[in-house]
Design a protein that fits this description.
The chain is of the alpha/beta class and 274 residues long. The protein has two domains: 3-119 and 220-273, Periplasmic binding protein-like II (D-Maltodextrin-Binding Protein, domain 2, 3-Layer(aba) Sandwich), CATH 3.40.190.10; 123-215, 3-Layer(aba) Sandwich (D-Maltodextrin-Binding Protein, domain 2). Helix content is 39%, strand content 21%. It contains eleven helices and 13 strands. The chain has helices at 3-16, 26-33, 60-72, 86-91, 106-111, 154-159, 171-179, 190-200, 228-243, 246-253, 261-269; strands spanning 35-40, 49-50, 57-58, 75-80, 97-99, 113-114, 120-129, 144-148, 164-168, 185-189, 207-209, 214-219, 222-223. The strands form four sheets. Strands 7, 8, 9, 10, 11 and 12 form a six-stranded mixed β-sheet that branches. It has a three-stranded parallel β-sheet with strand order 4-1-5. A hairpin with a 6-residue loop joins strand 2 (49-50) and strand 3. Residues 35-258 form the Solute-binding protein family 3/N-terminal domain.
């Protein structure tokens, strides 16, 4: 699917949910106070972690939040969120936007609005001991699987593969439970979390991941329903960051490997749309 068609699909989803939405106040509030509050995941992945030297947040999503703040002329206030709290933080006004490893799906699109142009594409994978006997997704049937509360992967592992989910507040707790033997596998985002974990942490050398990735979906910036001025403004920034190669450079800076084919695809597509 081209980026143009994907944007049209996501824009239709935004408009379909807008009839009962409240008026946009977020952009006015950002402009008046010259500050934007961004919910991010600080879970230890290349998308969000703490710098051990400074104890300050760093990562792909942090860089994106700071870049958007710079373009808005606003100070960026980062708020750490979890999969189990991120939607509530947005709906309750604790954050202005979410850049929090939260991919688009229809259920989320019914309760929130989002920037039409995606900034990444993510699928899920399962991590399991090489000696577990789990070689295919189908091998999870009837077995306990650790996963984050609110994860979009819960439904497919249950409905498609018959796994028994054991939900935890976040990926850190889920992975600790896997290492403690509470489940045979843990299912989380592949690129932001599990691939870097296996590549960089020798404590996980006895583990492997399953292919193919499940539920590949666009990562988008989320806002409250009806915040169309905000989404329109941010969309111009996101499109320009694809066009000028900022996302590709930021992916490399943060050590995300393998590189996302989606970023290269969107970088090629956007110049022709001028």
């Amino acid at each position: 699917m081209t980026l143009t068609n994907l944007r049209r699909l996501l824009t239709v989803a935004v408009l379909g949910a807008s009839f009962t939405a409240h008026a946009d106040t977020t952009l006015d509030r950002i402009n008046s106070r010259h500050e934007i509050t961004v919910g991010v995941m600080i879970g230890g992945s290349p998308f969000g972690s703490l710098d051990p030297a400074t104890q300050q947040p760093r990562g792909f999503n942090v860089d994106l939040a700071n870049e958007l703040g710079k373009r808005l002329g606003a100070k960026v206030q980062l708020v750490s969120v979890l999969p189990s709290t991120r939607v509530q933080f947005l709906q309750q006004g604790k954050v202005d936007i979410l850049i929090a490893n939260m991919e688009y799906n229809a259920q989320r699109g019914e309760i929130l609005d989002h920037v039409a142009t995606p900034y990444y594409r993510v699928g899920g994978t399962a991590i399991t001991l090489k000696t577990s006997g789990i070689a295919r997704w189908e091998d999870l049937r009837g077995k306990p699987v650790c996963i984050s509360q609110g994860s979009s992967y819960i439904r497919p592992i249950v409905e498609r593969y018959g796994a028994i989910p054991r939900a935890f507040p976040g990926s850190s707790q889920s992975l600790l439970a896997l290492r403690g033997g509470s489940c045979v596998a843990a299912v989380h985002d592949a690129a932001p979390l599990l691939y870097p974990l296996l590549q960089s942490d020798p404590e996980w050398r006895d583990y492997r991941t399953l292919q193919p990735e499940i539920e590949p979906a666009p990562s988008v910036i989320w806002v409250r329903q009806g915040e169309h001025d905000t989404t329109t403004k941010l969309d111009t920034f996101v499109r320009d960051l694809h066009r000028n190669g900022w996302f590709i450079a930021t992916e490399a800076k943060n050590g995300l490997n393998p590189p996302s084919p989606a970023l290269a695809e969107w970088h090629r597509q956007l110049p022709a749309e001028n």
